[in-house]
Task: inverse folding
């Protein structure tokens, strides 16, 4: 009888596992709906796929989600975190790919965020901690009531994404650093390789101006300005003067170069280039490209004061 009873229990267990497996095929609608959020930070796409449970008048932290235990960061399957290029979190490298992400909440100290290399797993029940890629602590913040668990991705800069996970009355956040500067340079070089050599000034000038606007730490700006200057010396037969007069583009180039030299502390060259730009302006009203005559004049006045 004991053997029969054991076999019966095993049969029931197998049946229950089969039923659970059926639920995982999404035959029935999910109580905690599956959500996907993605955001492109410059050239890198970040995304999360997770199930979003509701509070439903329950005590979440320290009860439904116990302190000191690893939580799946949502419901059902483990939450999947994907990145399209190699990134950094807390200075640690994370290769492009998909991962699972977990949280270990604590009552009176920092919470832990865990990123595991196995992205396709059910909850945290079989989490193999030997396959954790990253572990780091974050301070939990008190927030107003958040009924549904939610993950958000916000852009702090062209290089930094802010990831926030919030539920009930708590949230945690961390930064993901994307390889923006190198990707920007690689994209520029790719664009140049397929551009008409006689009109490649477009990419060069835009790249130099953008680098100055964003204070990128790149030594390539003077190279880009020189390449733009060389390209502008040859007027392409296909260039449409009615769209943008070539002198307008030359003025744009001169002003970008002036800004670069001022940034490097060479105010004499900056003023000289700025004055050349104003000579061109007398013919084509160059101020229009920036739509801010005051900014140009005030910069020139300041640079002159530094001579």
Result:
């Amino acid at each position: 009888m004991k053997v029969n009873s054991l076999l019966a229990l095993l049969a029931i267990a197998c049946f229950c596992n089969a039923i659970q497996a059926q639920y995982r095929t999404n035959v029935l609608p999910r109580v905690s709906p599956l959500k996907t959020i993605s955001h492109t930070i410059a050239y890198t796409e970040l995304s999360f796929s997770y199930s979003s449970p509701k509070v439903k008048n329950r005590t979440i932290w320290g009860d439904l989600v116990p302190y000191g235990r690893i939580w799946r960061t949502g419901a059902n399957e483990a939450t999947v975190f994907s990145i399209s290029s190699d990134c950094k979190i807390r200075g640690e490298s994370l290769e492009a790919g998909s991962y699972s992400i977990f949280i270990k909440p604590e009552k009176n100290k920092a919470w832990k965020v865990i990123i595991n290399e196995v992205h396709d797993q059910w909850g945290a029940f079989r989490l193999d901690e030997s396959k954790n890629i990253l572990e780091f602590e974050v301070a939990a913040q008190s927030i107003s009531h958040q009924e549904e668990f939610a993950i958000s991705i916000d852009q702090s800069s062209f290089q930094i994404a802010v990831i926030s996970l919030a539920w009930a009355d708590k949230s945690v956040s961390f930064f993901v650093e994307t390889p923006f500067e190198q990707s920007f340079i690689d994209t520029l070089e790719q664009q140049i390789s397929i551009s008409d050599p006689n009109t490649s000034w477009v990419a060069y000038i835009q790249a130099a101006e953008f680098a100055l606007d964003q204070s990128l730490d790149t030594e390539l700006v003077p190279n880009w300005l020189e390449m733009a200057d060389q390209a502008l010396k040859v007027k392409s037969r296909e260039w449409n003067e009615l769209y943008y007069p070539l002198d307008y583009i030359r003025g744009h180039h001169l002003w970008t170069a002036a800004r670069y030299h001022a940034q490097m502390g060479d105010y004499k060259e900056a003023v000289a280039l700025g004055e050349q730009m104003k000579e061109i302006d007398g013919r084509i009203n160059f101020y229009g490209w920036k739509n801010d005559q005051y900014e140009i004049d005030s910069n020139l006045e300041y640079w002159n004061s530094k001579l």
In short: The radius of gyration is 29 Å. The first strand starts at residue 34 and ends at 41. Residues 6-23 have pLDDT under 50 and may be disordered.
